[in-house]
User: What shape does this take?
Amino acid sequence: MVDRDCLLRGVANMICSVERHHPLRVAVDGIDAAGKTMFADELSPIIEKIGRPVIRASIDGFHNPREIRHQRGRMNPEGYYIDSFDYRALLDNLLLPLGPEGNMSYREAVYDYRKDEKLDTQWKNAPTNSILLFDGVFLMRPELVSLWDIRVFLDITYAESMNRGLQRDMGYSREIEDLYMERYIPGQKLYMIHSSPKKKSDLTIDNNDPMNPQITYITPDL
Assistant: This one.
């Protein structure tokens, strides 16, 4: 059994061992409440301590407006998978600029989904040796999967996903339970069928016990 701190250090060393002539783009994928944001947040200072600058960003900064996200209905799973995020904005503002043909000028976020309004964020310049740690759902969709240099998938059960979602809402909520049962979990099942993210990951981590995560797959390239 590997404790969390040990695993994080190992993953950070693996990531930092990969060199590109442009910033390294790392996806931290997984179903809802898999622990993606916390994992990337904890990984970031370890990577910086090794000596690589980190760009932290999330799919949450690339939502579509609410009227688009909910155009099929608030509980619709197809709407969750298809309509939630503005992938064109993600490509143009972050993934392509940091890629091999990019100009290194990027923005970490373009939309505030809580206020349901665009963000007027400033463009920044990325050091060539920087590492983008990007967390979110649906990151290995066909239009995105080839743009990541390293793909990490945090694996938890659907039951654990809903349990964590309810806990995150500070206790039981019928609305949150309905969202998981009718929108989030069915939407994630569509993603599994459509995109097979576990098969596309370079590193798969069982995160059902977040204090003792376990690597279940690692590509020979890492």
